[in-house]
Amino acid sequence: MTHRTLIKDLAALPDGPVTVAGWVETVRDQKKVQFVVLRDESGAVQLVNPAVREIGDDVEDRDAASVALGITESISALSLGSFVSVTGTLKHDERVKLGGLEVKIASLDVAGTSAPESPIAADSSLDKRLDYRWIDLRQPKNALIFKVQTTLEHAWRTWWVENGFVEIHTPKLMESPSESRAELFQLDYFDLGTAYLAQSPQHFKQMAQAAGFGKVFEISPVFRADPSFTSRHATEFISVDAEMSWIDSYADVMDMQEQLLAAGLAAVAEKHGEEIRELFGVEVQLPTTPFPRIPLAEVHRILREERGYVVPREDGDLDPEGERQISAYVKEKYGHDFVFVTDYPANIRPYYHMRDPETGLTCSYDLLYNGTEITTGAQREHRIDQLLANAEDKGLDPAGIGEYLEFFKYGMPPHGGFGMGLARVLMLLLGESSIRETTLLFRGPTRLAP
């Protein structure tokens, strides 16, 4: 493997020989000197080359002159976006605007030539940029999203592991649906008939509780055949899931999630805070715990009496405007970017959410972040008789969930957990307008490529 120095590490090196490699961002081909801005995954540096346009008869070292002429001609022919490797001499010079250093080229190797015209520009539409996503991701701002994602996931995994959670990887091909049949992708599966792409690892997370794992987590893709075209929906996305046993109530799940989020955001702020501020114009806010918690009925009262907004949905669930309004109220009253909305009616929650025997409300919550829902969590119903009663109350045929019910026949501890959309968290953290920006390769009803 060719030894190269990342551009971000050049500043710490003394003047002398270096090798750098990346893609060509700009070329200034002047008569007597050539400048190239080279960018890699860590930053950009200016390359400089004294131009040799021809070899005169009086040149003493014709071999050296021939090399210099070859470098000059190669730079003149460079197309933007081409990948090159350069060996040269590093020089610190505060007069150089780009980082206060430059590399004088001694040799240049073009590893991959780009077509002369880029298919996208800075003002291209989002759909056009997504058509050429690999080029779009060369922009430092877009690349930073996935560095932040890496830090966030690493911090979450670290927190989970340090707190006794086991990482699992559940199957994405299922014999029976995990949640709503209306949002299922189906496919033929050999002689077994129809298989479904998993909408959620929910059932298997619960199976892990019956297996005695105690506490589990998974970060993995899930699939929803949802024809929505909103800024926060996708047909394939990364779901961040956790489940744990021996909880006393869904408050234990909320406690766990807010600690997890606080740890993740602290790691992002420490590692990327300055870059996020520079490229996104956003200050990473570190949340205090506990997060505000408001029952759904109280949310409706606040919206109606203090915000002048009545949620139009007949089932009582919050619509996007209701989420924005209650989040704005919480920000004004508590100075907090997060709010747990709790105690949802059974008619808008799955049958496996536990119901409070006194109120009939589910022991569940949604977590809103900067005005948008990122999570649904709950204490699950672990008693098989009550689970069957809930399913029948929803009009479900027990035979249709028979495989799931098997998990409960041989003992199940009290448990609960949540599912959270990774791209939504990143979107809201970075102040972006759509999860299309915070998904590496977005999948929606009209997009299957690249």
Give structural notes.
It is built from eleven helices and 16 strands. By secondary structure, it is an alpha+beta fold. The chain folds into two domains: 7-112, OB fold (Dihydrolipoamide Acetyltransferase, E2P), CATH 2.40.50.140; 130-430, 2-Layer Sandwich (BirA Bifunctional Protein, domain 2), CATH 3.30.930. The chain has an eight-stranded mixed sheet with strand order 6-10-11-16-15-14-13-12, sandwiched between helices. It has a five-stranded mixed barrel with strand order 1-2-3-5-4. The protein has a three-stranded antiparallel sheet with strand order 7-9-8, with no helix packed on it. The mean pLDDT is 95.
Sequence stretches where pLDDT stays below 50 over 5 or more residues: none
Q: How many strand elements?
A: 16
Specify the oligomeric state: single chain
Share of helix among residues?
A: 25-40%
Kindly report the average pLDDT value.
95
What CATH first level of the largest domain would be assigned? Alpha Beta
Structural class: alpha+beta
Please give the alpha-carbon distance between the first and last residues: 29 Å
Tally the structural domains. 2
Please provide the ordered H/E string of secondary-structure elements: EEEHEEHHHEEEEHEEHEHHEEEHHEH
CATH topology of the largest domain: the name is BirA Bifunctional Protein, domain 2
Shape: elongated
Estimated radius of gyration: 28 Å
Largest sheet: 8 strands, mixed
In the CATH hierarchy, what is the superfamily of the largest domain?
A: Bira Bifunctional Protein, Domain 2
- Give the CATH architecture of the largest domain: 2-Layer Sandwich
Total DSSP helices: 11
